[in-house]
Amino acid sequence: MLLPKESQFLFKVGTSLASYSQTYSRATLYGTVSAAAGGEGPIVVPQTGRIVSLPARVGQQVRAGQTLAVIEQTLAATEQIGLSTERANAQAELRAAQQEYARLQSIADIAARKDVVAAELRLRQARQNASIYNGQASNRRVSILSPISGTVDVFSLAVGQQVNQGDELFRVINPRKLRVEAQVFAQDLAKVSPGAKFRVEGLQGQAGVAARLVVFSNVVNPVNQARQLVLELDGAAGSAYRAGQAVNVQVVGQSGGSEPQLVVPTSAVTDLNGKPVVFVHTAPERFKIQYVQPGAVNGEQTVLAQGEVNENDRVVTTGTYQLKSIYLNQ
After folding, report:
1. Tell me, what's the pLDDT at 101?
2. Based on the number of CB atoms within 10 Å of its own CB, is 212 exposed (0-12), middle (13-18) or buried (19 or more)?
């Protein structure tokens, strides 16, 4: 097929040399994004009560230790009666201890020393008990602090709202601390080799990002016979992803074969009438179609298992669509 230099320039035809390389293979796993350690902090109610202060706002950036809500404990009727009774008893005991101590002090010159000491100890204990019960009545408010630094997630709460112990009020999310969990089945186990590299690709248009292996579990799930793979996303690049999102995990690992194989850029392989082909640049203005049988693929390189392409043949990597259109219209 003849294509003048001017047309090559117009179509931005680019080429690359076919070469021998160590074979690489790729597996595609299906994973789910979740919060890594320190990436998510649920705010849980420590005691039944009502919200008396709510400084947190949806989408607010907060620091670890910052106050997000204040809860005032509410007591059942029986508990309130019991607390009131105990407080009244403590106050009565305090008054009696004060009167007894004052009486003994007034006759200290004739009173037994041991009686004065006992009255003083009784007064101290009565004051302490009264202070405890008064504190229980007045200090029933608890400040809830943020466990991590991050962003307050969506919630619908209001001051005065009644909440129960153990309820989750809202969550603080750090979008820079995410991980991906995927299941690796038997047919892909060999591809998760010690030298494998991982790349996470979003299903909603997010750019693919590199991921670091955290753990490849040695435990097999008895239900689906898969092993769990846990990856950690790069903080800055991974911030486009969200917890709960489904993603593809591309595993690029060196295969077990030691013999070099002929590879071409993956972009050089196209199809013609349903058959895989590459365009070989044989002369300055001439191109030839070669039918091939692609082998292992890693996203950047494709192994040519069969075909008439040789090492150092110049294959077309960009402009293949235009070349194919010209060939079909001849």
Report:
1. 84
2. exposed
186 secondary structure, DSSP code: G
DSSP state of 190: G
Give per-residue pLDDT as tens, 159-202. Answer: 988 888 888 899 998 888 889 999 998 888 877 877 788 888 88
Strands, E, within 192-313: which ranges?
Answer: 197-202, 209-220, 227-233, 246-254, 261-265, 270-272, 275-283, 286-297, 301-307
- Which pLDDT score, from 0 to 100, does residue 126 have? 84
Angle at 66 (CA atoms; ends 132, 245), nearest 5 degrees = 125
Say which amino acid occupies 324. Answer: K
Whole-model pTM: value is: 0.53
* Continuous segment of H or E residues that includes residue 9: helix 5-10
